[in-house]
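From: lab user (bench 3)
To: helpdesk
Subject: output format question, protein + NAP

Hello, I'm new to running complex predictions and I'm not sure whether the block I got back is the full result or only part of it. Here's what I submitted:
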Amino acid sequence: MTNKANITDKTVIVTGGNTGLGYECAKTIATSKDNWHVVIACRNNKNARQAVKKLIAETSNEQIEEMTLDLASLTSVRNFAKKFVVRELPPLRAVVCNAAIQIVTGTTYTEDGFETTFAVNHLGHFLLVNLLLKHLVSPARIVFVSSDAHDPEQKTGMPAPNYHDAKFLAWPDKDPPAKKESIATIGRRRYTTSKLCKIFCTYELSRRLQAEGHSTQQNPITVNAFNPGLMPGTGLARTYSPLERFVWSYIMPILPNMNTTRTSGKALARLVLDPELKGVSGKYFTGFKEAISSQESYNQKKALELWETSAELVKLTRVIPNPG
Ligand SMILES: NC(=O)c1ccc[n+]([C@@H]2O[C@H](COP(=O)([O-])OP(=O)(O)OC[C@H]3O[C@@H](n4cnc5c(N)ncnc54)[C@H](OP(=O)(O)O)[C@@H]3O)[C@@H](O)[C@H]2O)c1
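Helpdesk reply: Thanks, we reran it on our side. This is the complete output you should expect:
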């Protein structure tokens, strides 16, 4: 294998690249012939350092590093962006918004006062991408990791998303639902709703970048959403009961039609690497195939409301205008 020390010419950031899907995606990008400098953006420094060591050993690409990013803290997101932009790294060509959590044990709030699932899965990435936008060098790509669970038609067994407005998701206690649901169902619904938010963001940002001329056919900055399919065994079930975790880790992976992080990680990395996708933007991919996302995900009014409210919640001063 080639030692790629000092010959990288582009940088990718993968959030949550220390494990699961993000790790495999980072690994595929690091081994690609395109010579990427890979930054895994992670909340746990010790785990991140171990992952970097393993990635370097497995890929022989020495240009892999970790940077601290806790998506549950807007201060941490801002610090990450500040530190990243003063580094003299190869041009930033891709951001993969992969990290996520699912909490089935009750409502928790971040230090900023937002419901944690919405804050980590959506708001943190929303702020991160917006802070990095002007540092992306085209051709560049942004990928938001969603899930088929955002789409009730897919019958994934997860509760359908419930999107009314972003403030309700940020502060659910201010307007509790009339219908009584179990804590676990509420948590899973928050997760599927956050995955719908990822698709709203994908389509809205893609529209804005094109309308403002930041993304053109010659110099595209593309934005796409990705569904890895069900990949049992990952850390996503960390708040499940011991029995559910046992089934998730040992039973489900041997069932037919399951995906592995390795295969789905390759499919995710393809959205960053494949030259054929250079100008493809505002699309949803399931594994290696382009697909149709849920009917609701194409609702431009909701996408616009999510975008504008999110900008207000994270106190973003510079926002790309809406094309409409
Ligand atoms: N597994 C599935 O069946 C499935 C299906 C559809 C979609 N997905 C999506 O695939 C993506 C990857 O999930 P996975 O299955 O690989 O799960 P995973 O193994 O739990 O990986 C999630 C990653 O997100 C990181 N993370 C969590 N909270 C964070 C925070 N506050 N700040 C920064 N990073 C944070 C985790 O860090 P730590 O290691 O420190 O916890 C971990 O690196 C997610 O977007 C998920 O929604 C998964």
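A quick orientation on your result: The radius of gyration is 19 Å. Let us know if anything else is unclear.
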